[in-house]
Design the sequence.
């Protein structure tokens, strides 16, 4: 992969308010509420994460991106460019777009959450990190 060709940083503050609203609206229309989760009906990548074509705020080009990351970025105002940070699903549901089920945290904690999923209960992630959510239990 060509280094530096695709910017890793996604800064929602570079998007117009109109485009931010358009995206949030599109995400709402294309998802269904199932329990506490909001499940994306659109495309997914091979890892099971929701995908859509988003206009990159830096290049202006359409680019396939993870919907939960873009949504989290817009609603939180966070730039997602920090290394080794991921947008995790507290509910362990990769297609979920419920904002309160998403959190921006170190990749290592996201990995821990997979262990919680396997165990069927949250083992805790330290004082600064919320517990996992098991919405369907
Ligand atoms: Zn969820
Ligand atoms: Zn957990």
Sequence:
């Amino acid at each position: 992969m060509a280094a530096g060709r695709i910017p890793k940083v996604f800064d929602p503050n570079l998007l117009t308010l109109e485009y931010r609203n358009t995206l949030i609206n599109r995400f709402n229309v294309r998802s269904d509420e199932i329990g506490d989760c909001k499940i994306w009906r659109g495309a997914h990548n091979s890892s099971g994460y929701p995908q859509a074509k988003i206009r990159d705020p830096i290049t202006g080009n359409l680019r396939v991106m993870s919907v939960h990351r873009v949504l989290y970025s817009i609603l939180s105002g966070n730039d997602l460019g920090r290394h080794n940070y991921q947008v995790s699903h507290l509910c362990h549901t990769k297609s979920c777009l419920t904002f309160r089920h998403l959190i921006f945290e170190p990749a290592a904690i996201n990995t821990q959450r997979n262990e919680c999923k396997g165990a069927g209960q949250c083992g805790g992630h330290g004082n600064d990190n919320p517990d996992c959510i098991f919405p369907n239990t």
